[in-house]
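re: ur msg from earlier - yeah i can do the GDP-N-acetylperosamine complex, just paste it... oh wait u already did. ok heres what im feeding in:
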Amino acid sequence: MSAGPVIVLGAGGHAKVVIELLRASGHEVFGVLDADPTPRTVVDAPVIGDDSRLESLKAEGVTHAFIAIGDNGLRLRLGRKAQRAGLELVNAVSPFARVSPSARLGVGIAIMAGAVINAESDIRDLAIINTGAVIDHDGLICEAAHVAPGCALAGDVTVGQRAFLGVGSSVIPGRHIGEDAVVGAGACVVHDIPASALAMGVPARVTGRV
Ligand code: JB3
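and the outut:
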């Protein structure tokens, strides 16, 4: 069954991309909720209020939500809040992404144009697989993790909840990135990265804590 009208949370740059993905997949975008409820449009979608509107939207016929906010912790919290308000999370998957038929997807996931998700990978709720990123076979991308544009993850890579892989970073096969870790842009991960660590460079080295 196709999703009904979708409310999008967040009115920034990420929301612009997501709204266009939702429309390209045939979804109706009902409107946008933002912390700044000033009436305006986001790629022609109206900002209709802030999150206080969530509770009433189901009665207005809205059935689904998408959390279009890049902050991983906030996206996870808002996703669960939207579900508690009775809204289902929809996925925003570009028609120009390649998702293996054996890959498993949760809900509330953004998969941008040019992204590739290979065999038997597991992408959990509220993750972002950004423009042109590659998740090779048997990858595990946990809840609300963000794999930025141009990342390349070889086979059997695990990315923990709310972790962030910066633009163009790469990970060799079998490595684990811990929960809430941050990998800097262009880094090359050849060793496991501990939870909440900040790692950067080629090869990536832990330089601090997030
Ligand atoms: O790297 C790429 C390709 N995209 C980034 C994306 C994944 O994350 C992008 O470059 C940014 O780094 C970021 O995009 P985002 O989240 O759109 O950033 P920003 O432009 O700051 O927009 C965040 C929006 O969320 C703002 O309009 C805030 O007012 C809004 N916001 C903040 N807290 C909230 C809340 N909106 C709602 N509904 N609820 C909140 O609690």
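cool cool. DSSP finds three helices and 25 strands in the chain. ping me if u need the other ligands too
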